[in-house]
Amino acid sequence: MSDSSTFHEQPINTTSLPDISRAQSAALYETALHYFPGGVNSPVRAFKSVFGTPLFIKKGDGCTVWDADGNQFVDFCCSWGPLILGHNNPVVKQHVLQAIDSGMSFGAPTELENDLASLILSNNKKIEKLRFVSSGTEAVMSAIRLARGYTKRDKILKFDGCYHGHVDSLLVKAGSGLVTFGETSSAGVPKGFADETIVIPLNDKEAVKAAFDQFPGQIAAVIIEGIPANNGLLIQTKEYIQFLREVTKTNQSLLIFDEVITGFRLGFEGAAAYYDVNPDIITYGKIIGGGMPVGAYGASAEIMGHVSPEGSVYQAGTLSGNPVAMAAGIGQLSQLLQPGFYKKLNAKAASFVECIQEFANNRGYKFKVFTAGSMFWFAFTDQNIQAAAEIDASSMTYFKVMHRELLNRGVYLGPSGYEIGFISDAHTAADLDKAKKAIFDSLDIVFLKDYA
Ligand SMILES: *Cc1c(COP(=O)(O)O)cnc(C)c1O
């Protein structure tokens, strides 16, 4: 244990605060249980791995959200990533209101689609053409179909711990052994689909080579998250990512970067620029729609030429390129392109994370903050974690306590210790100071109070 008195005058505080009132949220949840399985429209919202029932959010502004009981929180979930400018951004809002004035959907092309595409393509050297869809899942599903259609191969190689939306063939987890056919991780996924998916551990070159040896000429694509950020933050080395680029090229297989989280987050050109790599297909979602349902997949003009109606890979959408959603994307991405935007955001995030890490180190707590750009992950470990199997599931009991203590102190993290947090442009120094103090107190409680 190091000397705790060395950290800025932060006294040890192990007093749990009383639980905030959550009566209105609890009542809404009771009602929602009649309507939706588990009371929610997406499973991780259900608070299954933390204390209590979901907070029903009434309003957001800047980095603050208010729940149905009127409690106020500094929000680090930010709708799971899309809100890089915070809630209720005035420019995004203005674009949306203006678009709505002219109608909600036409099922015919609009100039707004050109405008958003031009904003993206003229500032992103990694892709030449793209197609807009309505979610990250849809983007990945389409990218996989394109890779299969383009290579005329069926198998997909994915990594244990990477999430790519709820696409059938990717709802597959690792079996036992170095290179395995996946086992479905959801009921309702045919075994035949899982058989086309090979799952291997992250950060393991031998496993990749073994997979290509075992299935020569059969792997259509290797898919990886730009930085795996859905099962902790599993930061891969640049060398490993460049190895994936080489090995896919050698085997005439495509490299798909799923940048649904990292796209427009690590920088405007996402993880592809961060790792200085040129993937064959890139998927986007979350930030691209400014809070509206938008996804996209992009590639070289040559590869995109295989998509219908130019090519034979079919993909369509009634609401694809929806004008209101396009307007929100334009409102958001145009602000991200302002000079120094990412430098400022990333510096702010780095100093927040460093301060928390310094606190934990000074106290001697077994706690590590993994971070890249404005993303962070709190892990109760002293190891450098780069693969899913390295996460100690039992450490999640600490997160559960931390989550409750943070809610009681006005800080909202996504309700699972496997999820990462996001810092937005709207988080001010004062908000981050308030959050730090709450994080320090909750860490003291987690580490010094006996929960046995
Ligand atoms: C969120 C996410 C998806 C799925 O996007 P949805 O919009 O939820 O369908 C896919 N891939 C990654 C990397 C994601 O983070």
Please render the helix and strand layout as text.
Layout: H1 23-35, E1 57-61, E2 64-67, E3 72-75, H2 90-100, H3 111-121, E4 129-133, H4 136-151, E5 155-159, E6 172-173, E7 180-181, E8 183-184, H5 191-194, E9 197-200, H6 205-214, E10 219-225, H7 238-250, E11 254-258, H8 270-274, E12 281-284, E13 295-299, H9 301-304, H10 323-336, H11 341-363, E14 368-372, E15 375-379, H12 396-408, E16 411-412, E17 421-422, H13 429-448
Parallel strand pairs: 3-16, 5-9, 5-10, 10-11, 11-12
Antiparallel strand pairs: 1-2, 2-3, 4-13, 6-8, 7-9, 12-13, 14-15, 15-17
Helix pairs in contact: 2-10, 3-10, 11-13, 12-13
Task: Explain how this protein is built.
It is globular, with a radius of gyration of 22 Å. The protein has 2 domains: 4-88 and 341-448, Aspartate Aminotransferase, domain 1 (Alpha-Beta Complex); 106-321, Aspartate Aminotransferase, domain 2, CATH 3.40.640.10. It starts with 22 loop residues before the first helix and ends with a helix. The chain has an 8-stranded mixed beta sheet with strand order 4-13-12-11-10-5-9-7, sandwiched between helices. A 4-stranded mixed beta sheet has the order 1-2-3-16. It is an alpha/beta fold. It has helices spanning 23-35, 90-100, 111-121, 136-151, 191-194, 205-214, 238-250, 270-274, 301-304, 323-336, 341-363, 396-408, 429-448; strands at residues 57-61, 64-67, 72-75, 129-133, 155-159, 172-173, 180-181, 183-184, 197-200, 219-225, 254-258, 281-284, 295-299, 368-372, 375-379, 411-412, 421-422. Strand 14 and strand 15 (375-379) form a beta hairpin. The structure holds pyridoxal-5'-phosphate (PLP). Pyridoxal-5'-phosphate binds at residues 135-137, 140, 163-165, 225, 230, 258, 260-261, 285, 295. Residues 135-137, 140, 163-165, 225, 230, 258, 260-261, 285, 295 line the site of pyridoxal-5'-phosphate. Keywords: Aminotransferase, Cytoplasm, Isomerase, Porphyrin biosynthesis, Pyridoxal phosphate, Transferase.
